[in-house]
Amino acid sequence: MATRKPVTATPKAPSRGAPSRRKAAPRSLLAGVPVRTIVVVVGLAGLTALAAALLGSRRLRDEYVRPISAATLLPLAAAVGPQADRVWAETRPWRDHVSRLLASINTEDVRDAIADRLSDWVQRFR
């Protein structure tokens, strides 16, 4: 004959209104993202100031900043410059159309009509 296992009582889940028995661990001051970001920015500014103090501002600029900018910004400007000029020339008709449209809207009659509508709208809320 097979023996039955004794049934154990399952623990009840706490109700929604019941307070939890565990205390929440206090949050660390450095756990917040904005605080960590501020600490990183201040640290980087401090390291930059230390490098400028040790190397000298002229040496730092001549040996590090200018070569990095020459290596990154000049090729980027050379690659983007012709495309930007082409896009600026292609959008000339559109820019002229928009400027004419805005000039036609900016008349005394249109300003008066907008002022009347605005005053009617303000009167509704009084």
What is the structure about, briefly put?
The protein is mainly alpha-helical and 126 residues long. The chain has four helices and no strands.
Helix content: 55-70%
The major sheet is characterized as: none
| Computed CA radius of gyration, to the nearest angstrom | 34 Å
Low-confidence stretches: none
Q: Any idea what the shape is?
A: flat
**Count of DSSP H/I helices:** 4
Distance between the termini: 89 Å
Walk me through the structure.
The mean pLDDT is 82. 70% of the residues lie in helices and 0% in strands. α1 (33-55) packs across α2. The chain is mainly α. It folds into 2 domains: 33-90, no CATH class; 92-126. The chain contains 4 helices and no strands.
SSE map:
Blueprint: H1 33-55, H2 57-90, H3 92-105, H4 108-124
Label this structure with key terms.
126 residues, mainly alpha, 2 domains, 4 helices, 70% helix
